[in-house]
Amino acid sequence: MTAYARMVRPGLADCLLWGAAALFILIPLASFLIFGFFSVVSNSIDYRPTLANFDELLSNSSYRTTFFRTMRMAFLVSATNLVLGYATAYFIWQRPPAWRNLMVIALAIPLLMSYIIKIYAMRGVLGTNGLLNSATMALGIIDEPVSALLFNLTAVRITLSVVLLPFMVLPIYVALERIPASVLHAASDLGASEIQIFARVVLPLSLPGGIVGAMFTFVLASGDFLAPELVGGIEGFTYGRLIFSQFGLAFNWPLGAALSIVLMIVALGVIYAARRFGNPRWQR
142 near 136, Cβ under 8 Å? Predict the structure, then answer.
């Protein structure tokens, strides 16, 4: 192979890669977002550009309430999983290497399962005759089943926290694994206690993993519609269900696309913030 051929082949591969990305990702996404600037007139799409959908989004109080309630719910899910995920990742990191691998594999197995199956499993846990009510009644904590555990926003938060927990644990565990053992030994040799080592060495070095996990959890929770649909009921109506209703029930694709644009902007903002604050060089 000549030197010219070796120079041409990587360039051709890059062109093919970018062409495939544009064909299957960028162009469909752009064409979908363009729908947000159309409108529906007499049950048909009017292709004249307009900002009517965004005006309705800003003027409709129910849309704004649903949006901010969903963002608050996603934030609470991320905050809850940050605490639980860090504790879980730290526990795994402290185990012997053989146990670490088994625990990580066990944690990753639910990611291979169907998302719907996991949600229905949570319905079985939170239901009136579910595992949680049966266990608390067997322990004598309650006398009769609690029906308020299902079909509300609390059920959505619990379900998303459980289902999305691996997306928090794995990035934090990877960050912990990247901490050199020599750094921990050096801190110990200098007289630092275990609490000081954790607060001044382990936590700052693993913080980028927590930020990445929080980003994944927030973005996935804010746009999810299936969990609120199956365990939320009327009280668990979220922004994702609002978008789904415009596409699947009202058949108002332009309004649904406009609602999706707002959610996409929020997701991009969260990703940018996570990339900036999760980069250790930014702190310098």
Answer: yes
Residues of the chain with pLDDT below 50 are 1-8, 282-284
∠ CA 166-167-171, rounded to 5°: 105
Q: What number of helices (H) and strands (E) belong to the chain?
A: 15, 2
Of 281, 282, 266, which Cα lies nearest the Cα of 78? Answer: 266
pTM: 0.87
Q: Which residues lie closer than 8 Å to 60 by C-beta, 6 or more apart?
A: none
Q: Which tokens is 10 given?
A: 């990587």
DSSP single-letter state for residue 147? G
Euclidean distance between CA atoms 220 and 270, whole angstroms? 11
Which token pair is 154? 């609390």
Nearest-angstrom CA–CA distance, 82 and 266:
20
pLDDT, position 9? 52
Judged by DSSP in three states, 45 sits in: strand
| Lookup: tokens for 195 | 């609490």
Do 187 and 196 form a contact (C-beta atoms < 8 A)? Answer: yes
What is residue 46's DSSP assignment? E
Q: What are phi and psi of 230, to 5 degrees?
A: -90, -30
Token output for 240: 């994702």
Instruction: Give me the pLDDT at residue 156, please.
Output: 95
Torsion sign across C-alpha atoms 155, 156, 161, 163: positive
Q: State the DSSP code for 152.
A: S
Residue among 155, 178, 135 at smallest CA distance from 231:
155
Find how far residue 122's CA is from the centre of its chain.
Answer: 18
Query: If you search the block for the tokens 């093919």, which residue do you land on?
Result: 16
Closest of 214, 211, 197, 205 to residue 176, by C-alpha: 205
Cα torsion for 92, 157, 131, 166, to the nearest 10°? -20
pLDDT reported for residue 282: 46
